[in-house]
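Re: that backbone. Tokens:
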């Protein structure tokens, strides 16, 4: 029985390793394409992207994508995150225009409660950030003294979204934007 168990375990391990090796590259390509599509949605039209990593005062690192049209910088997309969601990790791509205002926000990843926290992906919620400059627009829910209308029955998810957006703005400022 022990030999049979080892043989079955060995075959299963080899099969799993083979499937992983076959799917690793296609999965990475799909994730890269999803990221590129999010960048295109949150910054104005561009012909070149320059990527750099920003380390925040908390030690966290965020990736910024500066978008250029010719020699002119047309915006910056910041890939940000928070672990404060109701179900944990929430990842966003936040686009900033050169004047520091938010052009658009795209949700990259979330596992919030369906029908409640998942409403963060809808334009009715995330659209309230569009065109707002964080210098005047407080990126916190109204319950916490901010300007954001929380999703009904999903305040934790709304706070998480705001936390990630604020973190993106910190990275944008650290990169030299909105001075």
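Recovered sequence:
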């Amino acid at each position: 029985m022990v030999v049979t168990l080892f043989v079955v375990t060995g075959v299963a391990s080899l099969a799993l390793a083979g499937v992983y090796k076959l799917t690793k590259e296609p999965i990475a390509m799909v994730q890269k394409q999803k990221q590129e599509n999010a960048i295109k949605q949150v910054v104005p039209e561009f012909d070149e992207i320059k990527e750099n990593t920003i380390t925040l005062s908390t030690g966290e690192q965020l990736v910024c994508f500066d978008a250029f049209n010719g020699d002119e910088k047309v915006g910056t997309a910041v890939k940000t995150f928070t672990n404060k969601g109701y179900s944990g990790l929430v990842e966003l791509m936040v686009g900033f225009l050169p004047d520091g205002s938010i052009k658009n926000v795209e949700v990259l990843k979330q596992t919030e409660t369906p029908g409640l926290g998942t409403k963060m992906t809808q334009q009715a919620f995330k659209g309230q950030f569009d065109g707002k400059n964080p210098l005047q627009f407080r990126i916190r829910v109204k319950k916490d003294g901010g300007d954001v209308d929380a999703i009904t029955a999903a305040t934790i998810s709304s706070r998480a979204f705001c936390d990630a957006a604020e973190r993106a703005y910190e990275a944008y400022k650290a990169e030299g934007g909105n001075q």
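The first strand starts at residue 48 and ends at 55. The mean pLDDT is 93.
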